[in-house]
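Lab notes, practical 5.
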Amino acid sequence: MEINPSGFYEILSPRCAVLISTVDKEGRANAAPFSFVTPVSSNPPLLLYASAPHRHTLANTRETGDFVLNIVPEGLLDKLWACSQALPKGVSEIEKAGLTERKSQKVKSPSIEDCVGWIECQLEFEKEAGDHILVVGRVVHAECKDEFMVKGEFDVSRAKPVMHIRGRRFVVAERVVTATVD
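Output from the prediction step:
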């Protein structure tokens, strides 16, 4: 079956779904779901998110120079979706969704306590790409709740991070498979 090229990302799925939390120059928190997110470099540690130009997340990142990727477990799926509402600038999606802010370790933007892990970033650069802006951040702190780490590795079967397909369709990562070919 042929797929419309503008919907290609549905078969490039699932993709990690995160809540990106930011703060504006007045200190008001914001959170929004993103699945156009990917690592781009290990050394230096860089990742990117792709944002529509009108998003508060992008405006806040530009104002304060930082953001946090919050790793969302299955139990927070409805709260992640609630954060996708178009609220006026300055109204906290974190509060409206019933989530809990926590102070981040190295950036001004808050983390979301309810999540299983947090990746704090400082803005490196941005670049226009089609109808989105690619925002590249340098990872300055990464952390995961202890109960989701086993022998130094992230345990997806315990964390059950949500992965986005398209629209309201998600899948939950629960199982790790290992390649056996040498």
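Observations recorded by the TA: Residues 5-171 form a domain with the Pnp Oxidase; Chain A fold (CATH 2.30.110.10). The longest strand covers residues 117-129.
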